[in-house]
Amino acid sequence: MKELRHLNLSDAGFSGSIPHPLGNLSKLISLKLSSDYSLSAKNLWWLTSLPSLHYLHMSYVNLSMASHDWVHVMNMSPSLVELSLFDYGLSYISPTLSSVNFTSLRVLDLCGNNFNSTIPNWIANISSLVSLHLSYNNFHGEVPYQFSQLPNLEVLGLGSTDDNLRVDWSEFLEGSWRKLKILYLSFSQLHGGIPNSIWKMTSLESLSLSFSENITGSIPRAITKLINLERLSLDGYKMHAVIPDWLYELKNLKHLTLIYCMLTGPIPEALGGLFSLQILSLRGNQLNGTIPTTLGQLSNLYLLDLSDNSLTGNVSESVFENLTKLSFENLLAMKNDQKINHVLSYGGARSSYYKENLLVSVKGQMLEYTKTISLVTCIDISRNNLSGEIPEGLIGLLGLRALNLFGNHLTGKIPDEIGKLTLLESLDFSENQLSGIIPLSMSNLTFLSCLNLSFNNLWGEIPSGNQLQTFQDPSIYMGNNRLCGPLLLDKCASDETPPGPGDLEEDEEEDEIRWFYSGLGPGFAVGFGTLCGILVLKRSWRIVYYHFYDEMKDRLFY
After folding, report:
1. How far apart are CA 236 and CA 248, in angstroms?
2. Model confidence over 418-437: pLDDT tens digits?
3. Domains recognised in the chain with CATH numbers
């Protein structure tokens, strides 16, 4: 065991205190002890006995009792390359260090702890840093402008600090930032708008300023000089403006999210020129006009969210020609089952410096996706003013997992072949004006876990079988007064108790008696009328008849 170089006990089910004799494994290069909050450490001094340690991961370990001296312990481990103490227990970080010995440290991840202080300046002296994560803490005050001088820094995460962390753009962008690829400042205090000097971050690939306090203004056109930009997330940015059509100049853009940005006007047709785009989310704005057909050119798109706007137009093959034919034929990412996950990430073989994340409305709730973003193929155009029929072209999107069209004015029937979307997990057509029966093919949606067809004009019997039998909530069908089925108050004719053999025999006898008496009157009238007609029209028969009548009378009475 003394020759052991790599030890990974993460998520192995261990609990209790980490044993100090691990410090006897003096040749360890990599140590991973991440847990589910079941492990703890009274102190970390035993780590100083591991002179060759390069990679230390102790995320989700309770380090509250080691909080006051952990910095000094790590500072005595100059061989450390990656240090991850993500989430749990650390509440103190030394404001100063007499000397900084982190000469090899490339990755420092301290996210999700309870630091309630300013960011120490000594971190800005770790010149070897490539990735620095300080998000989800309680840091306050100004972001050290010295970070811009870190010569190797590629990833900087300072977001989600309860809006206590302030960024002075004028100082922040004074540095070179030549190598910075990822900048995450979401949920921070960014006063004013994005300055034109943003172009200085020439290597930037991902910019996230979502829901930052007090950030306003329009997007500067200087951002188009960031030719390597792949992700632009400005959710909550109070623009009060239209979407600039020059965004199409960001040819490498893969993710564009402008959620709740107070955007107005139409969606620019020029967005159809972002051929690398995989995610387009414009939810919660005041956009109007029709959905441009040019979006159908986005063959890599796997998530389209235009919900909560004021979009209008007739949802038909002619209006949505490129999007619904995909062309619907062009949106290949939605036509095929996404079995390979493509995540925007950076880092070595042992850890990722940064991973993409995204909030998506799926299955009736907001869900956050990280590792499986590209597997979430979704179209959400709910809560608009769209009209017309559901385009048949949607059936060609065989890779679709979520389809939300609720809260519009859609008419016509649900496509008969909707059962071909076999990967669907969430389907919501509620609050429209759809009519007709629920297609039997819907029972083929074996992955479906969220269904809502309420408040339409659907009629007939609710299909049963396969996955549809698992839905026991009648509210998903409510508001369709002509629907019937076991879940509803209105039972279908086929739901009534079938008659037994004895009941059938009684019914047959009653029918015979009823038919006998009902035929007596008409039979008498027809027979009597025929006789009278003959006697009136044929003289010879009349003479014979009366002669026969007189003879019968004589026999009976005389």
Report:
1. 21
2. 999 999 999 999 999 999 99
3. 1-80 (3.80.10.10), 412-501 (3.80.10.10)
